[in-house]
Amino acid sequence: MAPAPQIVILDGYTVEPGDNPWQPVADQGRCMVYDRTPPELVLERAARADIVLTSKVKLTADILQQLPQLRFISLLATGYNNVDVVWAGQHGIPVANVPAYSTPSVAQATFALLLELTNRTGLHDRAVKEGEWCRCPDYSFRTTPLVELDGLTLGIVGFGAIGRAVARIGAAFGMQVIAYTPRPPAAAAFPGVGFVPLEELFSQADVVSLNCPQTVENGGFVDAALLARMKSTAFLINVARGGLVNEADLAAALGDGVLAGAGLDVVAVEPMLADNPLKDAPNCVITPHIAWASLAARRRLTAIVAANVAGFLAGRPINLVNASWLAGQ
After folding, report:
1. Helix residue ranges per DSSP H, 189-292
2. CATH 3.40.50.720 domain position(s) in the chain
């Protein structure tokens, strides 16, 4: 009888901080869970692993070639830019991700950020609790202009599951929806959504929502030139990947009033660096990469990761992101 596979989870804490047990994964082998793994400990901890599960810990070609026992990798996320999937595939190591687990939560967070920018709920709550309403001669006051979404144009960059969910919610608010995707579907498939070139989307939209993956080709594509196309009353929302945005350019654009505001759940380097120019940028709402992290979403993530492991062990891997590169497959 073959020994149980060694499963190593390199950075499990954000998925399972105490409310989302790893048991469905642990039941499939000898499982070692590390809350966090610094770069200098990756090789030591993964050295005898048959299966590695990772989210933000990077598995580069240099690291992977030093793990001769490794047979399978599953991300603990949808994005897979932290693993060299090409090298892994060329050396016969399947890599799976976790698609669609967080779609409702991320779409919800998109509008949480947008509504904070348009209604400034937190700002008004603080003003009330600091006594401004008690001192006010009127029954109502506003510390900043309020923006109605009905009739505004929502531009969605990326039209996968999350982009489509954002489109549905935007339409429910009465927004006109346009989208950019490199391979636009037939218009009849998504009535009410207009597919336009990227530059046109940034020019037309009152709200630009980034819902696309980060690739080698699109890093920092939201730069000064693209931001300059935006209306001065427009908002940028990013719940995708921080590396999609040139952060210095965005901070400068916010400071110069090129756009009205930004709502971000991600930054290029996480945890955020103390000198990130967006930390003190005006009209910029930032949350600490929590759009994906509801308990419901994390439970779905764990179930899909367990299914990824089970599929691989049964010889029927699922959710592969490097199938086209797998050697000999």
Report:
1. 198-204, 224-227, 247-255
2. 6-101+294-325, 103-286
